Amino acid sequence: RPSTKKVITIGRDADADLTILHPTASRRHASIVNGADRQLFLVAKDTRYGTTLNGQTCAPGAKLRLDDGSQIRFALSSRTYIVRLASSQDPSQAPLAEAALPTSFGRREKVKEPKPDNHQKRKADGDADAARQALAERRAKRKAEIDAMARDMVASTPSYTAPVVVPEEVEEEPEEEEATDADAVSALTKRWQLPVSHEARLQPASKAVSCIASDPAGGRVIVGSLDYKVRLYDFGGMDRRHRPFREIEPDEGHPIVSLSYSPTGDRFLCCTGSAQPKIFQRDGQHLLTFNRGDPYVTDMARTTGHVTIVTGGQWHPHEKMQCLTSGMDGSLRIWDLCGKTGLRDFLLCDHTIRVRDKGARKVAATACCYSPDGRKVACGAADGSVQIWQLKGRAHNYLRPDACARTAHRPSTDASGAVVSCVQFSPDGRSIASRADDGFIRVWDVRKLSKSQPVCEFAGIEPRGLTANLAWRPDGAVLCAGAAGASKNDPGRISFFSVGGDAHEVHRDAGGYRPLVSLGGCAKGADVCVLWHERIRHVFVGGSDGSVRALYDPALSKNGALLSVKRDHAPRKFLTADTSHVDASSIVNPNALPMYRNDDAFRSRGRYAKTRNSQTLSKKPDPPLAQGQQGRNEGARTTFCQTFLENELAQGPGNIRNEDPREALLKYANEEPIFRTNATFYRDSGGARRDLASDTLEAAESKFVEDQKQLMDRNPSRVIRDARKKPDGKEGGT
What we know:
- The chain is an alpha+beta fold.
């Protein structure tokens, strides 16, 4: 349209002469200047997305001439503005002198005017009030238009399969149909300050990722998975390949359930599928193991540790010597790292909170967390309840929770309740969010938890596994959570929700609140766990396919993945030697000649190979008999003992294994017994047992004298020498 103004301002501001409604446009995006001889000039500002003239990007501050038919596009808007110059016969378009152009845009030169009187002041004040009222009406009208546009924009939640990466220089303009959803999602992420424009993929795990934790500074990230391993990543030492600098297996055969760093970042807590959580140093060295309780004690307050699977754990937000764990045994335990230790230096626990259902029966505690100030603990139970306790010291019984929502989550097919997989306090501590396997995320007011309905709830967030969690933005206005696809082979997604205020009212329909933005996640499966770091402003996402992604925005985030994505990996260095001066007749290594070579020195390994492989020559003990060990099984007889028993005893003439014991005894029935007993003597004597001696005393004495004479006749000297000996063995006198 024709205009007589010297400078025409263009931008998103409501006071601009030409208003651009696209969210990527700046408040003062560009200006059009009326020059001499009816010429128009375009002056582009230094904006983020720039301005294009006839398909070419305009340099900031450059004064470009506009011709009839010139095409202008501002920012990422799909609209194209065409310049139409007025005809020379139009008297309303008088040429302007070059001297009349302003020296600077957006500023007004001060002109000294005469001092007005009181009547003029009152009139000026009335005009100013009318102008302010008119300006307020225009702003209110403009705000209503912007709200209407926002409602139309989010009428259908945009979704796509990968985060949008906005290039700094737009070489080719995308088609309008293809850029509509991407531009809308990019505008929403910029508006809500969601750091999802860029992505860095860490080295994946072999199985599903179950938990992610980061130290308070954001320099290190640890990832636990169902392959029983914890991977440690350091952004300061990684290159763009993002490989972990260490992998540890805390408890063999048990998946990782929860990870949490200490407030100082020098240690971390690792909870596995066993009943004994562990403490590790920053670099992965084992420090401490928690005690396992007595499984035969029914009252969990009377034992000193968990007796079944541990389901969660968190370090105290301020105390470096205190942490919290939950278990399937229906207890929350607060551990003092400076407390007593038992056998094998296992840490004992004497601060227990018992979790009960509505009927005062023991129920499994499936999730736990501290409040931001560390004065409260919250628990999610297997009956779908959310319970909160105020910490009152280890001597307190904690029979009843201070606040409880018994029916926080309840599935439609089972009246017993849904399993709560995550509870998380908001950064200000006034709200708490819970997530369960019923597909709902509910936000509760902590002060009215027992009597009120949820502040808001989000449906359709299907979890995949009992470790699915959620994460709050540091200001508490937005929370995010991962979800599974429609089927097993569909990609997962990560959704961002607005919590509180009037913002989330726009995203509500008959089915409940809808997410602000839904981004594509892992290729197959679901995004299980998320972590929104407060300091580096990264969003870490772990998937059921083992993938680990770090989402960030260079305009909002700092450090973290920004340090590693710019660092190339150093190639391997090989030593090279200059062999140009060596000819074929030169002897480089004289010891390689046959006359100097010692074959025994190089064949020592082969010489003793037969000895090492031989069971007898190497004197290696036999391995234990187990199924599948080097082809050996329980039925094989390869030991010396088995061979001896089989060849010598089992097949020898004295083997009585296959002989009938009754027949073996009967073959000795008619033979003379070797040992005579009272029974055989009674049988041989005809039944008359003789108890008296057969000789008289005189006959016995005469028999003894005869025996002595016979002895003296055989060796008289020996008999005399024996007679001279005293009873103590010494010889006496004659």
